[in-house]
């Protein structure tokens, strides 16, 4: 029977390449949608059409992304190949995986197929055996059939006419101008064309279309030229609010390989990408780790070591962080091997930098045991650790009393290739918990001289108290240009984390005293890792502040938006953003309370505060939580010195009592004690001031009586809490449960009570508080402006009575 045209095509091309590619894409989609029955049909058809190892590898790669979930499909794939006789192929590529994820019962059928004799088709002759049926025909010599060219020649004249000279001008002369084009392959031309179109879509901000095109080009194996312009697609994926966490992760990792490698002469600036990654509301460690490893393979170690690497090391479990460190190190070594001498930092240098940074990070996170284990691993690999890193590790171990680990560090240090003496000392590294007693320097009235003194203090790390620095900043900012303050802060950022923290704390203190809470948030976002605070709340408020500033139109009636006293555009972080302390975070909580204009927002913010105090991190939204299991745990929000301090509760007391009633003040104190945080004099002052301003005389004096009669001799903010947690809800129940655990009243407490009673027009109560104040504090006119004003208003109230109009406090 004569074969038709379709049969001839089928013989020449047994598999339609485009249909196979389309089927495989459909298979991948069905796997993602968990439609396994439909996926099985497509897989069987593809294998039946071409049972090759290439096809097996394609399906295996997709199915092994989730082996437990795709267990039955993997068994089915192995059974198909085994039934066709490809026993060795199944044993080498699929059986080891199935033995780990499948039960023996599930593999009975497959084992039976593998134990049967192989039916793999052998090489057989495609010719028939000799037969006498064709002897006559074969002996007859048939005339050869004419070729197509012979037939064409017969239809043409023997000699074509010559081209007239007048028409020769239409032809170009021979030239090598098109040599490159003639030699270029069709694949290269298609790659250039596809890459140009992809880049065009990105430059036109059509990121969804560009991403889908990128996936198709990758599936076809098309080479795509690298370009810095793809940073826009990465940034768009990071900042998008419409993508799920998983989709966001996939898109970022898809675009990253298209960024060019780091070159000394023309580096690609990835710091904006890092800034957006750090400011993501639900940053997860898996994304940061993948980003760091990919970019390390492109040579971008410096910005990664400053901003991304410490975060992954600090918050990962030790085993995960250890694996990340090795992958990061190996990725950069591969870049070095391929750089052909372009990279100066070779081998041991980058290894020392990576391991030293990791050990410092773990030590500062109070993970001394993990830091020592990493030190031991570095010694076994003949990697040296810097003296600076060992100093920090030794100091942390001494402060925590871990003598066994300390002796182990000394033993390991003796095994290093070089030895310098490790200073063994018990001095506690200075932190912001003792800033109020910092060494004072004598500031003069000459701002230029004071600026020079502060610059010297930044280098020596002997800065004055933050209050003195804040006063200097205020005077300097009002005197003229602020370039000196910018240079002072930049000097601190260049030389010392401690000095930077103190200066920024003083700047935030200045904004707090002037009620510029927007500048507090801006300072925090500009300079600190978003830890210890509810990231999403802070970023939402910060975006709102920036948008208001961008939309501002100057006019006589609208005030100019306030700016920081330093020029943030001129500041850089050569060693990465700072880790905040709880003292910095307390200012942020106060700012968030200020911007919480509704009762619902205020209550939601307080619930987040309790979660921070309990777990040290914010509760993520449902979308992020659902994907957390596959992306490792999201970034915890912990500060350098614990989860949270009692001072974070202070700004909540009065607003919550105004919004939900006076009983809510006791609830806050009860929540604090249940969390192991003791209320300080600031909390009792807020409580008593609210009672006095609302005329609750008995409750106000109840607070004052307990403060005066049972003062604590130790620091109430740091002493351990041993009293039983309160069980009642009233102020009386609370004080009964606390017994004698109260701080002594200070001058601010008495002044707040006097002012509160003046507001509620209780002159007798205010007079009694003033009398008690005189017993413990000698009044010196002019020493405290708030006390002076309160006593003046009290005398006016006593004279004028109800006719007196109180001043708004």
TrEMBL record:
<dbReference type="InterPro" id="IPR011990">
    <property type="entry name" value="TPR-like_helical_dom_sf"/>
</dbReference>
<protein>
    <recommendedName>
        <fullName>Pentacotripeptide-repeat region of PRORP domain-containing protein</fullName>
    </recommendedName>
</protein>
<dbReference type="GO" id="GO:0003729">
    <property type="term" value="F:mRNA binding"/>
</dbReference>
